[in-house]
Amino acid sequence: MKTVPRGPGFPPVAGTGRIVPGLLVCRRKRGAVPQGSGYVVHEGCDHIFFVGFLGAGKSTLARNLGALFHRPHVDTDRLVERRLGKSVAEIFADEGEDAFRDAETRELSRLSGRKSLLVSCGGGIVERPENCELMHEMGVVVYLDGDLEDSLRQIRRPERRPDLGSAEHAREVYRHRRPLYQGAADLTIDIRDKTFEQVALESGQLLWERGLL
Ligand SMILES: Nc1ncnc2c1ncn2[C@@H]1O[C@H](COP(=O)(O)OP(=O)(O)OP(=O)(O)O)[C@@H](O)[C@H]1O
Ligand SMILES: O=C(O)C1=C[C@@H](O)[C@@H](O)[C@H](O)C1
Ligand SMILES: [Mg+2]
Questions:
Q1: Phi-psi region of 190 (alpha: psi -120 to 50; beta: other; left: phi over 0)
Q2: What is the model's pLDDT at position 44?
Q3: Whose CA is nearest to atom 4 of ligand 1?
Q4: Are residues 133 and 125 in contact, defined by beta-carbon separation less than 8 angstroms?
Q5: Where does Mg(2+) bind (predicted)?
Q6: ipTM
Q7: 43: helix, coil or strand?
Q8: Distances (CA, A) of 197 to 20, 148, 152, 201
Q9: Which protein residue has the closest C-alpha to ligand 2 atom 7?
Q10: Residue 57 assigned ligand-binding role
């Protein structure tokens, strides 16, 4: 990815801005050309992948930043579900985890044909080194580094999470995964003791300052 820098200032104010709880959302008119108006121009694939444990807030963050920076958001779990026509829980139950992981890798590689996505990833995306390579080929990886307990509290409908299992199992997975997330990350955001809005502002600023948004 080649980056053409633009002027200072966060967030990018072009079009109209409005405040929503804790967040400044900047609206750009449809079709507006980002040249010379403080927008970054990237050549090649320039996705931003958000990784982290279950319930860390990846989807919420990618959605919030998508609204803030006018970038499309996709979620790998939702892409797999749409492609296979069933929920993640059903895929695990009917076809097993390997089939889910194969589908996840296929969906990930399909993103190479798209531009400027904010991608919230399934919690297990880092289980396959091939996925980490794909993400690095297509952009940068941001790790939301948080506590296991916060993740567990935030998970909605834990009974629908085939990957979660008992608290002890979740703890084991967390311990096993943390170095994988760290190894994959280009950037790490410490999300402990922060609200979802604080995380969105902090990561937006970090990515903006580095010319990634
Ligand atoms: N602004 C918010 N304030 C408080 N809680 C929130 C907020 N946004 C989301 N949540 C809660 O936190 C949960 C986890 O957030 P999110 O779904 O973004 O995490 P995730 O990392 O994508 O999780 P998953 O592993 O399920 O994909 C949500 O299901 C929701 O219940
Ligand atoms: O952490 C995991 O292994 C998973 C997380 C979810 O996002 C889904 O991708 C699936 O349930 C597996
Ligand atoms: Mg999610």
A1: beta
A2: 81
A3: 196
A4: no
A5: 59
A6: 0.92
A7: strand
A8: 10, 20, 19, 6
A9: 122
A10: yes
The pair of structure tokens assigned to 17 is 């801005």
Q: How far apart are CA 213 and CA 160, in angstroms?
A: 34
Consult the annotation and say whether 37 binds a ligand.
no
d(CA 208, CA 100): 34
CB atoms within 10 A of CB 94: 11
Partners of residue 189 on adjacent β-strands: 144
Determine whether the annotation assigns residue 123 to a binding site.
Answer: yes
| CB 76 within 8 Å of CB 140 | no
| pLDDT tens per residue across span 71-85 | 999 999 999 999 999
Instruction: Give the environment of ion ligand 3: residues with CB less than 5 A.
Output: 59
What are the residues whose beta carbons fall under 8 Å from the beta carbon of 155, sequence distance 6 or more? 54, 55, 161, 164
- The minimum-distance atom of ligand 1 relative to the CA of 120 is 22
Report pLDDT digits (tens) over 31-70: 333 444 455 566 788 999 999 999 899 999 999 999 989 9
